[in-house]
């Protein structure tokens, strides 16, 4: 049953991605949400409506937690099949760069991380996997990245955490090989999955974190809260996604 769902979701994501790329010519409207730097476009909304509609066909009876609010009104537990959806991640990059954005979703079954998908939109590369079956870039299985420490790693830290020096993260940045800010959790998660980045630190909403978390844990990478003991799937978390060594190096410096 999960295999059928998986293949249908992959096809659906590629379809939604092709539709998204057709709008790179600027044929969409932009509005602000919480601030001038927090944008939403008609493509975020269209993608979410399309993904949510298709998920209800592919996986009848599921519940959906999605960023723009077209999913279920309240999802406050993980009973049954729960999909967590980010219909366009890196909206600011989509609008300003026409590149470096993605589409992400994850399936939890009775609280168990089960399937996850991160689409690198412009490159049309789909990272997917979970449930003990490994992680793939399209049809190619990814191997666990080398267990590098902080000094030998490029690290991505979201700009607001560095600007406000949250949890001594400027010190972490100085001790890394280099600091990167991609402005898209999807792109940054892919960076850690492929070993391009040794770590990614950010404050993430459920739809920013769940897909990358499922794939990172499947690959044996660390996913840890840096401000308390645990991570909640249904709320915001200050987290690191990293190699085991880089993750520990960061935790030692953010105490
Ligand atoms: P989004 O584009 O789906 O909103 C940018 O550092 C990353 O943080 C992106 O993955 C972006 O996802 C996410 N993000 C979440 N809340 C945000 C906000 N209020 N403003 C800008 N980016 C936000
Ligand atoms: Ca957003
Ligand atoms: Ca996002
Ligand atoms: Ca989004």
TrEMBL record:
SUPFAM superfamilies: Carbohydrate phosphatase
Presence of keyword Magnesium: yes
Stored InterPro entries: Inositol_monoP_metal-BS (IPR020583), Inositol_monophosphatase-like (IPR000760)
Superkingdom field: Bacteria
UniProt cross-references to PROSITE patterns, sorted A to Z: IMP_1 (PS00629)
Keywords from the UniProt entry: Hydrolase, Magnesium, Metal-binding
A Pfam entry, by short name: Inositol_P
Protein name: Inositol monophosphatase family protein
Organism listed in the record: Limosilactobacillus pontis
